[in-house]
Design brief:
Layout lengths: L1 H26 L4 E3 L10 E5 L3 E6 L4 E5 L8 H27 L10 H36 L10 E3 L1 H32 L13 H14 L1
Antiparallel strand pairs: 1-2, 1-5, 2-3, 3-4
Helix pairs in contact: 1-2, 1-3, 1-4, 2-3, 3-4
């Protein structure tokens, strides 16, 4: 039981860190950054593009950000990225509440199979959250790489993968790993508790003294 609780707590900690990372990644503007094709060119500014805003960083260190004006005027990948990241953040919140209710370290429910299966359901929701969060970074990375090697795209419009994509992959991995640990701990504990093992004390054979006393008593009664 102690090992199952430790695994569940580890999975919950990883999932909470991953869920916080989802919120951070969704707000970062560094999904796409300016691609520098030649190293000998002195660049005066760098462009960052995110889901909600785009920023221009000057060589002096000054940064100016502008929120996207129209939602309908955004590209399909930006709209899908926003939707999936928001859904992932909300689903992670629901998964956190369900897991806390079914966790072994809380007293929201009485211990039993129901509590273990509730914790397993929370872990499954964390896994689903990780899958949702994994889609936007992969989609952005595919489009960035395709445009980078496309000769028809001007060099001024070529972009590179930003730090937010790598953080998105890391948070998705944490959610998948943490949710898997929670599911494994809850299901395994539930299966073990469903089949209790009963131990019976072995019978001792009668000793020679007891047998002789029994024979002596029988003789006296006869």
């Amino acid at each position: 039981m102690a090992a199952s609780a430790a695994v569940q707590l580890l999975g919950l900690s990883l999932s909470v860190v991953g869920w916080a990372g989802v919120i951070l990644v969704a707000g970062l503007p560094m999904w796409r950054v300016t691609a520098f094709m030649e190293a000998n060119i002195v660049v005066a500014q760098t462009t960052w593009e995110g889901l909600w805003m785009s920023c221009v960083v000057q060589s002096t260190g000054q940064m100016q950000c502008k929120v996207h004006d129209s939602v309908l005027a955004l590209s399909g990948e930006l709209q899908a990225g926003r939707t999936l990241m928001v859904m992932g953040a909300l689903l992670g919140l629901v998964a956190l509440l369900v897991t806390v209710v079914g966790a072994q370290c809380t007293t929201c429910l009485r211990g039993g199979r129901l509590k273990d299966w509730v914790a397993a359901a929370g872990g499954a929701l964390f896994v689903a959250c990780g899958l949702l969060v994994l889609v936007p970074p992969c989609w952005f990375a595919h489009n960035i790489i395709a445009n980078f090697y496309d000769p028809n795209v001007p060099q001024s419009q070529k972009r590179e993968m930003g730090a937010a994509l790598y953080l998105g992959w890391a948070t998705a991995a944490l959610l998948l790993l943490g949710g898997g640990l929670i599911c494994a701990s809850g299901v395994c504990k539930g299966e073990l508790s469903a089949f209790p093992v009963k131990y019976a004390a072995p019978r001792r054979p009668p000793t020679a003294t007891a047998a002789s006393n029994g024979d002596y008593d029988k003789k006296n009664y006869v």
